[in-house]
Amino acid sequence: MLTLRRATIFDLAGTSDCNLVNVIENYQMKYYFYHLLSWPQLTNIAVNSNGNVCGYSMAKLEEDIEHAGHVTAVGILRSYRGMGIAYKLIKQSHDAMKEIYDCDSVYLYVRVTNWAAHALYKNKLGYSIDEVVKQYFYDKEDAYSMKMTFPDGELRCGLIYVVQSKNGGNKRLK
Protein backbone atom coordinates (compact mmCIF):
# COMPACT_ATOMS: atom_id res chain seq x y z
CA MET A 1 0.00 0.00 0.00
CA LEU A 2 1.21 3.49 -0.85
CA THR A 3 0.27 6.79 0.71
CA LEU A 4 0.64 10.04 -1.23
CA ARG A 5 0.78 13.17 0.90
CA ARG A 6 2.45 16.48 1.48
CA ALA A 7 5.94 16.19 2.85
CA THR A 8 6.87 17.36 6.32
CA ILE A 9 10.24 18.32 7.69
CA PHE A 10 10.55 14.77 9.05
CA ASP A 11 10.37 13.37 5.50
CA LEU A 12 13.30 15.30 4.04
CA ALA A 13 16.03 12.76 4.87
CA GLY A 14 13.99 10.02 3.17
CA THR A 15 13.34 12.31 0.21
CA SER A 16 17.06 12.98 -0.10
CA ASP A 17 17.79 9.24 0.05
CA CYS A 18 15.24 8.60 -2.71
CA ASN A 19 16.89 11.28 -4.82
CA LEU A 20 20.39 9.88 -4.31
CA VAL A 21 19.30 6.46 -5.55
CA ASN A 22 17.33 7.65 -8.58
CA VAL A 23 18.23 10.99 -9.99
CA ILE A 24 21.41 12.20 -11.66
CA GLU A 25 21.04 15.67 -10.12
CA ASN A 26 21.53 15.50 -6.38
CA TYR A 27 20.78 18.27 -3.93
CA GLN A 28 22.08 19.36 -0.56
CA MET A 29 19.68 19.10 2.37
CA LYS A 30 19.27 22.90 2.47
CA TYR A 31 17.63 22.71 -0.98
CA TYR A 32 14.88 20.46 0.39
CA PHE A 33 14.42 22.71 3.44
CA TYR A 34 14.20 25.78 1.19
CA HIS A 35 11.45 24.26 -0.93
CA LEU A 36 9.48 22.90 2.00
CA LEU A 37 9.66 26.11 4.03
CA SER A 38 8.97 28.41 1.06
CA TRP A 39 6.20 26.41 -0.65
CA PRO A 40 5.04 23.71 1.79
CA GLN A 41 2.04 22.72 -0.34
CA LEU A 42 4.26 21.94 -3.34
CA THR A 43 6.48 19.18 -1.91
CA ASN A 44 4.73 15.82 -2.06
CA ILE A 45 5.87 12.30 -1.31
CA ALA A 46 4.81 8.70 -1.79
CA VAL A 47 5.41 6.50 1.24
CA ASN A 48 5.30 2.69 1.22
CA SER A 49 3.76 0.50 3.93
CA ASN A 50 7.09 0.50 5.83
CA GLY A 51 7.04 4.29 6.03
CA ASN A 52 9.87 4.74 3.53
CA VAL A 53 9.79 7.47 0.90
CA CYS A 54 9.57 5.78 -2.51
CA GLY A 55 8.81 8.87 -4.58
CA TYR A 56 8.67 12.64 -4.40
CA SER A 57 7.96 15.78 -6.35
CA MET A 58 9.13 19.28 -5.49
CA ALA A 59 7.80 22.45 -7.05
CA LYS A 60 7.97 26.18 -6.48
CA LEU A 61 6.67 29.45 -7.83
CA GLU A 62 8.53 31.03 -10.74
CA GLU A 63 10.40 34.11 -9.60
CA ASP A 64 10.32 35.99 -12.91
CA ILE A 65 6.91 34.96 -14.27
CA GLU A 66 3.75 36.05 -12.49
CA HIS A 67 1.15 33.35 -11.72
CA ALA A 68 3.46 30.54 -12.82
CA GLY A 69 4.76 27.47 -11.04
CA HIS A 70 7.80 25.32 -11.69
CA VAL A 71 8.21 21.57 -11.13
CA THR A 72 11.75 21.41 -9.77
CA ALA A 73 12.36 17.70 -9.23
CA VAL A 74 10.60 14.35 -9.47
CA GLY A 75 12.04 11.00 -8.42
CA ILE A 76 10.50 7.55 -8.09
CA LEU A 77 12.37 4.46 -6.90
CA ARG A 78 12.81 2.05 -9.83
CA SER A 79 10.73 -0.70 -8.22
CA TYR A 80 7.76 1.72 -7.98
CA ARG A 81 7.91 3.13 -11.52
CA GLY A 82 5.08 2.52 -13.96
CA MET A 83 2.42 2.75 -11.24
CA GLY A 84 1.33 6.34 -11.94
CA ILE A 85 3.00 7.72 -8.82
CA ALA A 86 4.87 10.55 -10.58
CA TYR A 87 1.66 11.58 -12.35
CA LYS A 88 -0.28 11.72 -9.08
CA LEU A 89 2.44 13.59 -7.20
CA ILE A 90 2.76 16.19 -9.94
CA LYS A 91 -1.04 16.56 -10.15
CA GLN A 92 -1.09 17.28 -6.41
CA SER A 93 1.41 20.07 -7.02
CA HIS A 94 -0.62 21.36 -9.98
CA ASP A 95 -3.76 21.48 -7.85
CA ALA A 96 -1.97 23.42 -5.10
CA MET A 97 -0.47 25.81 -7.65
CA LYS A 98 -3.95 26.62 -8.97
CA GLU A 99 -5.93 26.62 -5.75
CA ILE A 100 -3.46 28.15 -3.30
CA TYR A 101 -1.08 30.20 -5.43
CA ASP A 102 -3.45 31.16 -8.29
CA CYS A 103 -1.07 29.95 -11.00
CA ASP A 104 -2.24 29.71 -14.58
CA SER A 105 0.80 27.90 -15.98
CA VAL A 106 3.69 25.69 -14.92
CA TYR A 107 7.18 25.06 -16.28
CA LEU A 108 9.83 22.37 -15.93
CA TYR A 109 13.15 21.26 -17.39
CA VAL A 110 13.76 17.70 -18.51
CA ARG A 111 16.73 15.96 -20.09
CA VAL A 112 16.30 15.53 -23.83
CA THR A 113 17.17 11.82 -23.39
CA ASN A 114 14.56 11.13 -20.68
CA TRP A 115 11.92 9.57 -22.95
CA ALA A 116 9.77 8.22 -20.11
CA ALA A 117 9.48 11.69 -18.60
CA HIS A 118 8.67 13.20 -22.02
CA ALA A 119 5.77 10.76 -22.39
CA LEU A 120 4.44 11.59 -18.93
CA TYR A 121 4.74 15.35 -19.33
CA LYS A 122 3.45 15.58 -22.92
CA ASN A 123 0.90 12.78 -23.20
CA LYS A 124 -0.56 12.61 -19.71
CA LEU A 125 -0.02 16.03 -18.16
CA GLY A 126 -0.38 18.25 -21.24
CA TYR A 127 3.03 19.95 -21.35
CA SER A 128 4.60 21.10 -24.60
CA ILE A 129 8.21 21.88 -25.43
CA ASP A 130 8.84 25.60 -25.11
CA GLU A 131 12.51 25.61 -26.11
CA VAL A 132 15.75 23.63 -26.05
CA VAL A 133 18.23 24.88 -23.46
CA LYS A 134 21.76 23.94 -24.49
CA GLN A 135 24.01 22.35 -21.85
CA TYR A 136 21.49 22.98 -19.06
CA PHE A 137 22.54 20.09 -16.82
CA TYR A 138 25.83 19.78 -14.95
CA ASP A 139 27.05 17.08 -17.36
CA LYS A 140 26.33 19.44 -20.31
CA GLU A 141 23.26 17.55 -21.53
CA ASP A 142 20.61 19.72 -23.17
CA ALA A 143 17.20 20.21 -21.60
CA TYR A 144 13.74 20.80 -22.91
CA SER A 145 12.04 23.70 -21.22
CA MET A 146 8.42 22.57 -21.10
CA LYS A 147 5.28 24.54 -20.31
CA MET A 148 1.72 23.66 -19.49
CA THR A 149 -1.13 26.15 -19.22
CA PHE A 150 -3.98 25.15 -16.95
CA PRO A 151 -7.24 24.98 -18.91
CA ASP A 152 -9.91 27.47 -17.89
CA GLY A 153 -12.58 25.82 -15.80
CA GLU A 154 -10.54 22.66 -15.35
CA LEU A 155 -12.04 20.34 -12.77
CA ARG A 156 -9.68 20.31 -9.83
CA CYS A 157 -9.18 17.22 -7.74
CA GLY A 158 -7.67 19.01 -4.77
CA LEU A 159 -8.27 18.47 -1.11
CA ILE A 160 -11.75 19.06 0.24
CA TYR A 161 -12.08 19.87 3.91
CA VAL A 162 -15.29 19.19 5.79
CA VAL A 163 -15.97 21.15 8.96
CA GLN A 164 -18.85 20.70 11.32
CA SER A 165 -20.87 23.82 12.02
CA LYS A 166 -22.28 24.73 15.41
CA ASN A 167 -25.75 23.48 14.46
CA GLY A 168 -24.36 20.03 13.58
CA GLY A 169 -24.41 20.36 9.79
CA ASN A 170 -21.37 19.82 7.61
CA LYS A 171 -19.87 22.47 5.37
CA ARG A 172 -17.43 21.79 2.53
CA LEU A 173 -14.46 24.08 2.14
CA LYS A 174 -11.98 24.03 -0.72
Automatic annotation (TrEMBL):
Pfam families: Acetyltransf_1 (PF00583)
GO molecular function, one term: protein N-terminal-serine acetyltransferase activity
tRNA-binding recorded as keyword: no
Family of the protein in this entry: Belongs to the acetyltransferase family. ARD1 subfamily.
Listed name of the protein: N-acetyltransferase
Keywords tagged on the record: Acyltransferase, Transferase
GO CC terms, sorted: NatA complex
